[in-house]
Amino acid sequence: MPAPAGDTIFALSSGAPPAAIAIVRLSGPLAAMALREIVAKLPEPRRATHAALHDGEGGLIDRALLLWMPGPASATGEDLAEFHLHGGRAVVAALLDRLAAFPGLRLAAPGEFTRRAFLNGRIDLTAAEGLADLLEAETAGQHARALRMAEGGLGRIIERWRAALLDLSARIEAAIEFGEADEEVGTDLSIAAPLTALADEARAILAAPPAERLRDGVRIVAAGPPNSGKSTLINAIAGRDVALATPIAGTTRDVIEAPVRLDGHAILLTDTAGLREAEEHIEQLGIARAQDAIEMADLLLWCGAPEESPAPERSLFLHTRADERDDIMPPGSLRVSIHEPDSLLALRSRINERCRQLVGRDDELALNRRQRDLVSLFAAELDAARTNGDPVLQAEHLRLCRDALDRLTGRAGVEEMLDSLFGRFCLGK
Q1: Is residue 162 included in any domain, yes or no?
Q2: What is the DSSP letter of 29?
Q3: 112, 129, 220, 344, 368 from 9: Cα distances, Å
Q4: How many domains is the chain partitioned into structurally?
């Protein structure tokens, strides 16, 4: 919920002490008052200033660097101060206690600083979502894509789309206002061509891999008949014992998942039960779960005959345990043996190549499900406006287009998801 009027918040914004430096943030209408009480006078705006911090009795808390950023030109859109002090537990606790003693100041909730930035128009919702992903990024690809969103990459595109929509809406409204509604203005290239161009641009963005794949990892599933070397293969790729591997067929009875980082890519490795006709109930359950995992796989490491793969279009065909076999390797299969290091390097290279295709380029925008749904709606309404020759209906379709963009940026219709979004942020962000 929006902060109450007059509410001023503070929090430790750096890691938990002890540390070399700690950063405490303060935002709200009482920030200037509290700062004066602690350091005697306000520092020069937007310049790092060295100052002594004092408790309520005049005792020294610490000597620190201060940053004073009056609103609205601040990160939160409010008066904002930052204390950069020594990161000992006692030092940090003393400053937090001093701030808590002021009437009207309270500890911030997780994500509340960023939420105020959104509510005060300093960032839009797409940038806030990008910032949440940036805080959780663990790979270079995740970092690059999240940073682009946090820096307003999608927001700038949306503002350009909005400006084009307003121009097109004005033309159609003019046709209605001046009695030209009987003419099929939608067939006019001055209207139809821009609508087509906007829809094509939206679909080009939708064609990029989704943010969930980048964030959660490429789902790589090893599957095939029993005793085909799936568990051994998973352990070799992960570089650790993830699955129990034995010469006994049917050892793996359940789906086993292991998140790993492979050549900079986030991957969720999955081992599965061997696929065969089973009579035992527990094995049947394991096979059913294996089939579910195969359905969800982005890449299937198929360890059986290529023609038996349940998803050949998503399969990398492997001739596993190659050093133990005397059969002919099927065309298109990759020879793999844990006793042949070069074969494992070749496998990692093929997996890395497929991951690059699945996650896309770092300069592409990666949309989450909410964003994809709204951009899809935007494109569909553009198509409807282009194909409908009635200016009144065209105007309504373009209004729905603008509504989709407003929901994308958080201008409308997003109150129900704000708590969930900003709850992903750490305290002090």
Answers
A1: yes
A2: T
A3: 8, 22, 44, 54, 30
A4: 3
